[in-house]
Amino acid sequence: MASSFWNIAYQQAMRSGVFVAKVYSFLHVTTNYLAFPAYAFGPSMIPTLHPSGNVVLAERISKPSRGDVVVFQSPEDPNKLPTKRVVGLEGDSVSFVVGPGKNDESRTIVVPKGHVWVEGDYIQNSRDSRIFGPVPYGLIQGRVLWRVWPFQDFGPIGPPTTT
Amino acid sequence: MRWLRYLNQWRGTAKEALEQVSIVAKFLCLIHVTDRYIISSTHVQGPSMLPTLNLTGDVILAEHLSHRFGKIGLGDIVLVRSPTDPTRMVTKRILGLEGHRLSFSADPLVGDGSVSVVVPKGHVWIQGDNLYASTDSRNFGPVPYSLIEGKALLRVWPPRFFGSLR
User: Fold this and answer.
1) What domain range is B130 assigned to?
2) Is B146 at the interface with chain A, CB within 8 A?
3) Is the pLDDT of residue A49 over 80?
4) What is the ipTM of this complex?
5) In this structure, which of A20, A37, A134, B8 has its CB flanked by the most CB atoms within 10 Å?
6) Looking at the complex, does the CB of residue B31 fall below 8 Å from at least one CB of chain A?
7) Is B108 within the bounds of a domain?
8) pLDDT number for residue B13
C-alpha cells in the first residue's frame, strides 16, 4: 500500500538523520574539546611551517605556555585564524624591533594580564603582536602539536629551529 | 577459570548498562550543542548594568547565533569573554563598532577629562549601563569581535522582570 511505503521511507529518513546527528555530535565534541585540524599557510612561520601550506593538528587541552605554536582568532579580523608562536605570557617584558627593515629602534612592552604576545618565527614577514598588540587568552583556539600534511614532513611541531 | 564464567554472567548486564549510558551520553551531547551554539540561559549579576539588569542577579536567555553571522549591532547587550580574565564572562552593551569614533569620560565621578578614541578594525567597544560601577572598554580598551560569545535575548528570572531587554 502507498501509505506503508511512505511510512518506511519516513522511518529510514529518521534513522539516517539520527545517525548523522550522532556522528556530528561526536565530531563536534572531539573537535571542540580535544583536538582539531588547521590549515596554515604563509611565510610568517618559516622554517617551522611551510609557506605553501601545512595541515596541522592542534589540541585544546593544555594551557599555552612560552614557546608554543598556537592557532588563534585574529584580533584584526574575526574570520581569520593565524598560527604564531607564543613569545611572552602575561607579566612578561617583551622587546621587539619596531621596523626590522628600516632601523634598529626597539620597544619594550609588559604583556597585560589575560593576554599573550605572539610572534612569527620569520620575523621579517610576519603580521603578529608587534602589529596588532597582545592577544587575549580567550582568542586562542589551540596549541599546534603535529604536522599531518605534507606527508614527507609528518611529525611534531616543536621549539624554533636555530639556523 | 571460574572467574571467566562469572564474567560471562555479567555480559548481558554490561551490554544493557552500556546501552543506557550511550543514551544518556547522546542526550547530554544534544543539550551541550544547543546550549553552546543555539540558546542558553546565563546567570548574570553585579552593578555594572544597572538599571537594565539587577544587582543581585538575573537569569537571561542568550542566543549564540548572531555573532557568528556578524549580526551584532549597536546597543545590543552581549556576553563577552573578559580580555583580562579568560575564565570570566562579562555582560555589557555594545556602544561602538569598528571604525566608530567615541568620546568618553575617563573618570565619570570627576566629570571632566574627555577622551576620544576610534574603534580599530575587528574590535567593538563595550560599556556597562552603570558608568559609575563598570569595568569595561573605558578600562581595558576595545575588545576583539571574536571574544563575543552571545547576545542577550530576554530576561526570565526574576519573574516580575520577565521580558525583553532594552
Assistant:
1) 40-162
2) yes
3) yes
4) 0.76
5) A134
6) no
7) yes
8) 87
The answer as to whether B60 is a domain residue is: yes
CB contact under 8 A, A136 and B86: yes
Could you tell me if residue B94 is inside a domain? Answer: yes
Output the pTM of the full model.
Answer: 0.81
Count of structural domains, chain B: 1
Pick the closest to residue B120 from B97, B146, B90, B94 (CA basis): B97
User: Which domains are delineated in chain A?
Assistant: 36-156 (2.10.109.10)
- Residue pointed to by grid coordinates 548498562: B17
Judge whether B151 lies within some domain.
yes
Q: Is A133 part of the contact surface with chain B (CB cutoff 8 Å)?
A: no
